[in-house]
Amino acid sequence: MLSKKSQYAFKALGYLTEKYTEGPILISEIAKKKKIPLKFLENILLELKKADILDSKKGKGGGYFLKKSPEKVKVATIIRLVNGPISMIPCVSLYFYERCKNCNEKHCGLHEMMTEVRDATLSIVENRTLVDLVDY
Amino acid sequence: MLSKKSQYAFKALGYLTEKYTEGPILISEIAKKKKIPLKFLENILLELKKADILDSKKGKGGGYFLKKSPEKVKVATIIRLVNGPISMIPCVSLYFYERCKNCNEKHCGLHEMMTEVRDATLSIVENRTLVDLVDY
DNA sequence: AAATTAGTCCACAAAGTTTGTGGAGTATTC
DNA sequence: GAATACTCCACAAACTTTGTGGACTAATTT
After folding, report:
1. Is A129 helix (H, G, I), strand (E, B) or coil?
2. Interface membership of B122 toward A (CB under 8 Å)
């Protein structure tokens, strides 16, 4: 399961995608519309900014906005950033790989199956972008 | 990611599947061979027994063994049992469903995408069994 | 029947993660 | 320089994970 933080991040990014043409959006507006605790959302958006997904402007007329065009930001990128590995086990992860201590990966049934699961998931989340998060 | 507990459970079940014809297997043997903390493994196996996946026998010649034939036990069942939901978000889960508070499921982009991810994952784990966990 | 073997059960504890909150500071605009 | 809005850091409560310890029960062997 994705953490609440991740779910909040997706809701917020969906909202910013909707409002992409409208310039900076207040944190407080996102928090209210998407029912996200304000201060928690602050942390999340700041993290997304540091990861180059968002940018912000201070002072009057300020707020957060997408740094890149929403169709250029993959859902997979956001998951890895906010939630961590997409794979079910570390020895199968592409971005968070860790060697398995108690099995030989070449001959491990679990390894093989989890690789399939990973690829099935990636085939979706690597091909969806922030645009796919918007309500319709 | 699956918890360590889940990974231990899979390792143990894979081992019991290998040794399916050999009668009861000692917890201590599984723990040693699969490098799982003994007492932690006790808890896991007991849980699997209560869920009717395993059975056990006490005293000399005792140990744990699969209650059903390994090809009859789906991987999906084990994940749900030991790890919890397979879906990435609760409002998309079949077995652990929870309503989403801040979106209309019929018009939510996230909901739609996560349904696809769920189905892609299920198409694998609902069609694999303990047999697929065995090393080869 | 006693000893040995091996699972059962319960409680607890250390560590880590998640989910926040509070408050002072900084940049920008008017 | 006042108001606005993001920034940064620290901390805390709650929960989950990952175990451990010890007494108990059931089955077998001698």
Report:
1. strand
2. no
Q: Least CB-CB distance to B103: which of A84, A101, A135?
A: A135
Residues of chain A with pLDDT under 50: none
Question: Tens digits of per-residue pLDDT, A108-124?
Answer: 999 999 999 999 999 99
Q: What is the dihedral of CA B2, B6, B7, B11, to 10 degrees?
A: -150
Tokens at A73, concatenated = 């930001």
d(CA A62, CA A65): 9
Task: For each of the domains in chain A, give its residue range(s) and CATH number, in order of start.
Answer: 4-66 (1.10.10.10), 85-130 (no CATH)
Outline where B1-136 has alpha helix (H).
Answer: 4-18, 27-34, 38-50, 75-78, 109-125
Lowest average pLDDT, out of B9-18, B73-82, B99-108, B110-119, goes to: B99-108
pLDDT 10s digits, B12-69:
999 999 999 999 999 999 999 999 999 999 999 999 999 999 999 999 999 999 999 9
Tell me if chain B has a CB within 8 Å of the CB of A121.
Answer: yes
CA A16 to the chain's CA centroid: 13
